[in-house]
Amino acid sequence: MTDSAELEQFRALQASLPDIWATVHDEPRQPHSCVIVPSLSFDQEELMKVAGVPFYEERLLFLLMRLRRPGARVLYVTSQPVDPDVVDYYLHMLQGVPGVHAKRRLTMLCCHDASPRALTEKIIERPRMLRRIRDWIGDPSRAYVTCFNTSPLERKLACELGVPLNGVDPQLADLGTKSGSRRVFREAGVELSPGYEDLRTIDEVVARLDDLKQANPELERAVVKLDDSFSGEGNALFRYPELPADQDARRQTIRENLDKLQFAAADHPAQVYLDKFESMGGIVEEFLIADEVESPSVQLRITPLGHLHIISTHDQALGGESGQVYLGCKFPAAEDYRTEIVERAHRIGEILKQRGANGRFAIDFLAYRKKGEPWKFAAIEINLRMGGTTFPFVALEFLIHGALDVSGDYRSTNTGMPKYYFATDALVSPAYRGLLPQDFLEIVIEHGLHFRPATETGVLFHMIGALSEFGKVGVVCIGNSPEEAEVLYRRTKEVLDDETDAMRGDRGRLASMFNDYPHMMD
Fold first, then answer.
1. Distance from chain centroid for Cα 473
2. Would you say 508 and 502 are in contact if contact means Cβ atoms under 8 Å apart?
3. Of 223, 230, 226, 231, which is closest to residue 326 (Cα–Cα)?
4. Which parts of the chain register pLDDT below 70?
5. What confidence tens digit (pLDDT) does each residue in 216-231 have?
6. How far is the C-alpha of 145 from the C-alpha of 166, rounded, in Å?
7. Residue among 504, 499, 502, 392 at smallest CA distance from 451
8. Count of CA atoms in the C-beta half-sphere (13 A) of 63
9. Quick check: bond before 332 cis, omega within 30?
10. Angle between helices 482-499 and 437-446 in degrees, nearest 10
11. CA distance 329 to 319
């Protein structure tokens, strides 16, 4: 199929999505089919910097909540098999329908391919798998595909299957790059960090770093960012050395110091990063410093019917060597600036809606201030896809029927109480390696760490499959107060440490990156 023919077919498929969406939401008992493809269709070299990334495909298992709709059928595709105990773990907690009923409407399918490539690419290159999925779908007028992010690969997959894609048109992907985000922020009239976008060469990086310093002589650090990266792994911190007065000499000094860029991974060669920058493009921005700095995020959704909704707010934890890597979040964002970031996010969302975007996305901000002064804000980036804050909130909805109130709190329909959580993908220790899903679930049950529907509190785990190889697991700790969520997280970590002897001997250095960021639990 030619590119033009594929685009034409894709537009026709997308035109059917509003009707399918309306039917599914207005008549949940009507038969419909959802194909979930949790492919991370990014630059694979950048993606492989994330420990345990093959198991990030398990994060979309929270979307099994769609099986609460009696008419829903779900096909979940992965690169490697998901342990059946992990699937049963989610189905057991599905509220509103018997687990056995939901299981009959769920099909798990895998490529048996662990190569470091996008899952969608693996599916497309397997004609018999495509045929099997088409046969499973049946009536394409009542089916759609949901993916982690959208790229030309996902567009091609939708065309191969003959069903629409529940996500942003890949032709709009530039709006979610670092450069595209800055352009949207300006159009929306939202504050952003001083900086420059659409850079393509190292000469441009050097010149713009120099320009930032000349505009702000007190500037000590700047951030260089690849246009299309994942989880902050494409960000590098630049520290300004002493610079001479002459422009040519200044820029030569800056160029010579690019080999000292600070990355999330300590062993990341600067030249490899700079080569990637010249192939991908990117931006440079001031590294904002203040007495108080927080990293809130607002999650939004534009439905296929064109309705814009604010879904949630979070405060994020950023860390790693560069201080730019997403580590986790707590819900909701701090009350004293929640309204301000929601208002700015809504303006940005309206621009995206005008451009034709749909699906879930998140907008990251910095909130910063000097002591005693009002908060200031800078929009940082648009994640025009599912992101790190998507899954915890979907987990909350998975477990507890409720809704956001006007203040941005999520209140349980059953009790009327607001819910809070602390979530991370990065509870990790070398001592956890070797834990099979069965071993881990036994520990969870024995110590009562699981979620309890009676109290609507407890812990939901994800990426359980990453434990055996990477010693890494994700947690969403849900409580009736921020303090209760904190206690659940700390108890979970203590139990895993005790059960694996993580605190003893040389083996006992807990590798959880959150140890260095206790402020997130304040």
1. 15
2. yes
3. 231
4. 1-2, 42-49, 230-233, 264-267, 320-324, 502-522
5. 999 999 999 999 876 6
6. 6
7. 392
8. 22
9. yes
10. 120
11. 12
* Rounded distance between C-alpha atoms, residue 28 and residue 21, angstroms: 10
DSSP character for 144? E
Helices (H), 162-269: 178-188, 202-215, 247-256
Closest-CA residue to 490 (of 514, 466, 461): 514
Q: Would you state the pLDDT for residue 513?
A: 40
119: left (phi over 0), alpha (psi -120 to 50) or beta: alpha
Q: Give the integer Cα–Cα distance in Å for 243 and 493.
A: 46
Amino acid at 209: L
Strand duo 106-110 + 221-226: pairing: unpaired
Tokens 């060597």, residue located: 321
pLDDT of residue 267: 63
Q: Give the tokens for residue 517.
A: 């960021």
Give the pLDDT confidence score for residue 518 in this predicted structure. 38
pLDDT tens for each residue of 479-502: 999 999 999 999 999 999 999 975
Of the candidates 215, 178, 317, 235, the one whose C-alpha atom is nearest the C-alpha of residue 49 is: 235
| Distance between CA atoms of residues 95 and 86, nearest Å | 17
Cα dist. 104→59, 99, 136, 265 in Å? 21, 9, 13, 43
Q: Which pLDDT belongs to residue 2? A: 66
Is the CB of residue 57 less than 8 Å from the CB of residue 119? Answer: yes
* pLDDT at res. 457: 94
DSSP state of 230: S
3-state secondary structure of 480: coil
Helix-then-strand count for the chain, H and E: 17, 18
| Interstrand relation of 458-462 and 418-428 (parallel, antiparallel or unpaired) | unpaired
Q: Give alpha helix (H) positions in 52-98.
A: 84-92
For 54, the token pair is: 């093959």
Q: Which residues pair with 379 in a beta bridge?
A: 192, 365
| Pairwise CA distance, residues 388 & 400, whole Å | 20
Between 270-280 and 202-215, two packed helices, what is the crossing angle to 10 degrees? 100
Give the pLDDT of residue 139.
Answer: 92
| 8 A C-beta contact, residue 297 and residue 362 | yes
